[in-house]
Design a protein that fits this description.
Layout lengths: L8 E2 L2 E12 L2 E12 L2 E14 L3 H8 L3 H4 L5 E2 L10 E5 L8 E9 L3 E6 L20 E10 L2 E15 L6 H34 L1
Antiparallel strand pairs: 1-2, 2-3, 3-4, 4-10, 5-6, 6-7, 7-8, 8-9, 9-10
Length: 208
């Protein structure tokens, strides 16, 4: 099926495709793919939500949760600062320590012990198969990291959206357009389930 025969949706009403929704080891993960049309071309992307509980009050969880280096270095994600301390500022991510990295993010808002909202900077040129100038209007990433406490237990919810232009042309197979996102979202699912969340819980339980 090609994108010209598919109802691609709009930016405010994307066409969603379910990927998975499961609960493994107390980590609830939900992944979806999406497409929508713009004047510049068709955008494809994926969303992932992650929910889990930590048997500690939020004041004990926040110092570790806000420092992504403390629980994401295990998968070679290195941040140029403590994200939860960078309200209104930018940071970079790399796969090497102290490298800076090509991926710049803006910290839109931090509410201590509650919320971190991030957006990835829009590239100067498009990503995807064409790489044509003028296709950079879509943000590659938007993320929300939130905490809430009830009866001494902290509930964590993480939501992320990543997207890029697939092509200026609509004559592209939908499976081809979404293929990179299938790989990306399944990799993210594994990292959160098997590495990120267990590592975060481990350091909190060992230090509080």
């Amino acid at each position: 099926m090609t994108l010209d025969t598919l109802t691609t949706g709009t930016a405010l009403a994307p066409k969603y495709f379910e990927s998975f929704c499961d609960n493994q080891g107390g980590v609830v993960l939900h992944g979806r793919y999406f497409t929508y049309a713009t004047d510049s071309g068709t955008v494809c992307g994926a969303t992932l939500s992650v929910r889990f509980s930590i048997d500690r009050p939020v004041k004990s969880v926040w110092p570790y949760f806000k420092d992504f280096n403390s629980w994401q270095n295990c998968e070679h994600y290195y941040y140029s600062g403590v994200v939860g301390d960078l309200d209104g500022k930018t940071f970079r991510i790399s796969d090497k320590p102290n490298d800076g990295g090509p991926h710049q993010y803006h910290v839109i808002r931090v509410i201590p012990e509650c919320l971190i909202v991030l957006s990835q900077s829009i590239p100067d040129v498009g990503v995807g198969e064409t790489g044509l100038p003028g296709l950079g209007e879509v943000s590659p990433g938007f993320m929300v990291f939130s905490l809430d406490e009830c009866e001494g237990q902290t509930q964590a919810v993480i939501f992320m959206e990543h997207a890029s232009y697939a092509s200026r042309s609509k004559n592209i197979d939908i499976d081809q357009a979404l293929a990179p996102w299938r790989e990306i979202i399944m990799d993210a699912r594994k990292k959160f389930r098997d590495s990120f969340v267990p590592t975060l819980k481990k350091i909190i339980y060992e230090n509080t």
